[in-house]
Amino acid sequence: MLHVDHIETFYGETQALFGTTLKVAPGEVVSLLGPNGAGKTTTLRSILGLSQPRAGRVQFEGADITHMPTHKISRLGIGWVPDDRRVFPSLTGRRNLALGTRRTRFRRWSQNEMIEVFPALEHLLGRECENMSGGELQMVAISRALLGSPGLILFDEPSQGLAPKIVQDVMRTVLRLKDEGIACLIVEQHALAALEVSDRVYVMDRGRIIHEGAAQELLDNAPLRRRLVGM
Prior knowledge:
This protein has one domain (2-84, 151-229): Rossmann fold, CATH 3.40.50.300. Helix content is 35%, strand content 24%. It has helices spanning 40-48, 70-76, 93-100, 111-117, 134-147, 164-179, 191-197, 215-220, 222-229, and strands at 2-8, 10-11, 14-15, 20-24, 29-33, 55-60, 63-64, 78-81, 152-156, 183-187, 200-205, 208-214. By secondary structure, it is of the alpha/beta class. The protein contains 9 helices and 12 strands. Strand 9, helix 6 (164-179) and strand 10 form a beta-alpha-beta unit. The radius of gyration is 17 Å and the shape is globular.
């Protein structure tokens, strides 16, 4: 579904990615792990067209999206849950969800289905987002991404700032998305939580992929896991 092929991305004259290559199959959950500054978020930004690579190629379902504008990439069926949620604080949950709703060739989700996934969402629809907790904002952000009818969702640090119980809820949601056939690429500092829901994993360091393999391998191999991700 997604093929990132030897991309090189810069911020000004500073190179952030050095030949980064990864793949995500339909319905697959893939983790992208590594220390702060490794290039994980830049990889997501490069996929979304927010930081366009100077070299290499990004393909989604066989189409070259490397230099496509972000709004067109979104309409192809790539959703995004950013690390800071990026909701409109003065708007209600309902209005934020409406702004993210669109049709693609992938499965269409309804607001009622979002409430089935997140029952607490029903009580947030009429509340301004500036009056929500981090966990509540994350429910809105994930629901907004799903209402965009994605075939692939990019999660950037979905557990950031959340209580452990909410982190578990978010990861359970990832598993439900997988059951629905939605692919997920997860950038996450909480490596164990991400590995437990992932099929495969890539580890980055200093803008390069330094490890690729089955997620279960890192879960089962503590010395390798400590060496690669420090836990």
